[in-house]
Design brief:
about 170 residues; 2 domains; Arc Repressor Mutant, subunit A; 9 helices
């Protein structure tokens, strides 16, 4: 059912950009998903289902980003597919399952860093978003955003300060 729901949502978001051939493919995938739901089985060799499976996994991952046990194996188990099938589905996406989860966790951590009040420390963020330690979090953050978390907050604070008046004569 998650796959079916994710596919319908994906088609709804992209239908206006699809060509007639794309719409036909989306319809065929929808029919296959409905058949799969009705038969209670999943054909993991069906290439038209891969985007819907990847979208369902992304949606599920987004719901559980704070879960310390979030992993490809957990997602696959919840979606009733093998880990291999899940990884194959993500070949249609631009990143692996693990990279997707890491990127989304970093995005959420960045949002918390840019909050005007009650900013968590780097160590708190690393622990909350399940990075091995602060160093690992800082390296991943810098790779994703080009700045360390501390530098990002400093830049954000500088932008929020009112401009200083030039010194008088």
């Amino acid at each position: 059912m998650r796959l079916l729901t994710a596919h319908v949502a994906m088609v709804r978001e992209t239908a206006h950009d699809l060509s007639p051939t794309g719409l036909h493919g989306a319809r065929d995938a929808l029919i296959e998903l409905v058949r799969t739901v009705l038969r209670h089985e999943f054909d993991d060799t069906e290439p038209r289902l891969a985007p819907a499976l990847a979208r369902a996994a992304m949606d599920l991952a987004d719901e559980h980003l704070t879960d310390p046990d979030l992993s490809p194996a957990t997602l696959a188990r919840r979606l009733n597919v093998s880990v291999r099938t899940l990884h194959r589905a993500f070949t249609t996406a631009e990143e692996s399952v693990t990279a997707y989860v890491r990127r989304r966790r970093l995005e959420r951590a960045r949002q918390e860093l840019l909050a005007p009040f009650a900013r968590p420390t780097v160590s708190e963020l690393a622990a909350h978003w399940h990075f091995a330690d602060s160093s690992h979090f800082i390296r991943a953050f810098k790779k994703q955003y080009g700045h360390t978390p501390t530098r990002l907050t400093a830049l954000s604070d500088e932008r929020k300060r009112p401009p200083q008046a030039p010194p008088g004569p």
